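re the bet — no i am not wrong, look at it urself. input seq straight from the record:
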Amino acid sequence: MMEPLTFRVDPRTRFPLVEVPGQDFALFWLPLTKVQIEYFLSGDISSRFDRAWYLERLRANPRVTFGNLAAQNLAQAFITDITFNEARVFSRWFGRNYDLPTNEEWHRALRIFETVAAHPAFVEQILALPDLHPRARLLVQACEKALPDHQRMRDLSGRRLSHQMMMSLGILEYVYMDTARTRCGACGSSLQIMTSGTTGQSTTMALRDPDQGDRMAVLGVRSTTAAQVRGTPMEYGG
């Protein structure tokens, strides 16, 4: 058994994060959602992220309501079709110490979460967070219900925490590829871009433009922040 998991919510949107066991950082439970981006847009006074910008993103990856979220449209819950710089802006909006993960951090977290069996108790623990936003609650529940069919997993005994968090068989996610944090790549695996010879194993994908990123309907972002233990850690079995 590994050390306990600790969950908390972010200060802006009150969506869940999980501390990476044995590490000094936490990750959002899910990639950045359209719900969170809409909160960002409601407070942004610049002309850069206006209605036209958001409508363009929705043309690439339409919005879906919680009630209509299902295996075939699960990726529509998340913001995609964004550039590297936009991903950084969104990540840093959450507050001090929030940013994109590095490629190394992302894979370090993946390796740890791959050792833990998926379990509904994790979602129950998230739903028990006192400050969790009601819309985060609905989205977490809807994703948990739709994910097994979305990921086409026939044998649920092999499902890991990385699947539950969509780091495996989810969407692609922006990461930093250099120590100067000026170049980007994409981590993860997406059923939407798999070929017949693809296993679905999460990996790093080189982008055509590592300086600006690529607008892709399956490429989004998951923010990281410094670990900060709050409350009582939540136990789980590996």
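see?? The radius of gyration is 17 Å. told u. also Residues 194-200, 229-238 have pLDDT under 50 and may be disordered. so pay up
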